Structure formats: structure tokens, C-alpha cells
Amino acid sequence: MNKLPISRNEGLIFDIQTIKNLRLLGIVGYLSGTLPLSTQQNNFLGVPLRLLFEELLYVVVHHSEYYIVPDDVMFQGLYASLTNNDLQQIQFQAKMSQLRTNGKKIPDSAMIYNTEKEPVFHEIKNTSSHLPNVNTWNDHFNQPEVQTKLLFQLLQSRPNLSHSLADYLIFSHLRKNGYFITAGLRFGGKFVAYPGDPLRYHSHLIVKPVYNGEKIELKKLVNGGRLATAVKKVYVIAGLTNKIDVDGVEPQLELDPKEFITSLEASPVKTFSFEWAGFG
Asked: Looking at 149, 190, 208, 233, which residue is catalytic?
């Protein structure tokens, strides 16, 4: 399995092989590593690879071989959300995984629990493994229960969850249609879409999301269309036909965020393109 380290609620990938694997999935990200005393231009930046929120969410939802590894702040939030039963179950699953890895026989379920329903495997309280921190939990992060809580915590960190989910659904729609997506701020949009790997192709689309209830100013459409045509691209506005209402669905979102997001992807995305005729 591949790790997706999180720092300040953003994905930062340092492993070169993971970066290559993500590229094969159409996840580009952008390199952001440089030296403070020797800053470089964008073409010479190195690891880590910084992932857009939409890229991170797309990988976690659609590719189970990748899992989130939190930073210290995110981990403390995770640990605070766990009950005693959650902790016992996580320790039990980790011990079972260790037994399978070592090729040892796993005891029958009747032998694993005693009559008080307490696990046979106990942590010794005066050992370092009992102290909760990221390093001692490395073997636990790939468990489904832990990933569910981490994903929910990541979604909660968004300042406007409904807009973030709308951006993600537009990203997912473009990705499923074969486009490679990067950030589009330098062209006045949210995303820039490429027909293939950006190392081989120029971008074709500047994508600007329009949220439910948002008014579209004619002046902005003209500006976007003129800018896109001037740089030989097409200006696209995209939006959802169904409104995303995150109020009242928090219990469902907390229970299984992957299933909730997958159900949202069934909502159709509508796109409209603009080109400035006789210009550029």
C-alpha cells in the first residue's frame, strides 16, 4: 500500500515511487521543494509533490491501495475522537496483522476473547508504544476504521465544505473524461485541463466552477473568454444540477465518507464553453 502523508491538511508526497504511481493514475500535483538560500524557478523545483485537495480526495476515494498518514496535529484530533472500544479494536487488528505477517497461526475467535469480551492482547502502560503519537501508530493508519475517521476529519477542515465538494465533483467529472487537472489560478480559473500528461500536451481548458445560487456576471464571462482565447484555450464554466446540502448529513458523512462522496458523484455536472470569436 502507498502512503499519502498529510501536513496542515494538504497532501505532501516525498516518495519518488509514489509520485510515479500517482502520475500513472493521472494525478499530477505540483512540485514545491526548494532551498531557502537557493530558490529556483518553477521548472527546477523538486519534492515534495503537493496535491490539490481534489486530487487527494480522488485518490483516497477511488484507489483503496492509498491511505492517509496524518501529521501530529491531525493525529491528535484522530486520537481524541476514538473511544476505548475503537482503541481495543485497532490494537487487536494490528496484532492480527502482525501474526499473519510472521506466519503464525491465528487463534480461533473463541480463544481471542474471554468471557468478559476483553482482548487477550494488552498494552503495557509503561512502554513507549502506549504513548499515542504518529510514529507508534504507523502500523494502524491503513486500517479501514482509522481511514474513515481521518477522511472525515480532512473534510471537516475545509472552510466551505459544500463548495469544496462541488469543486471535487467537477474535478472527478473531468478526470473521468480523460483530462489531467492542475491548478488554474494563473489563468483566472480553478482548474486547467490537459488532454493528456502535461509533460506532453498543452492545456486546452480553463475551468471555473459556478456554485448553486451564485450569479454569473456577464463582464466576468467576457473577461474569461477573452483571456482564454488569447492563450489559445477554451473558457469553461461548470456547475452541479443538484445542490449539495451538507447540513443534516453529518452523521452519514462521519459513518462512511467514501460512500457519501461516491453517491454525490452520481449527480450530473453541466459545463458550458466560451470562445471569443475573431480575437487572438
From this structure: 233
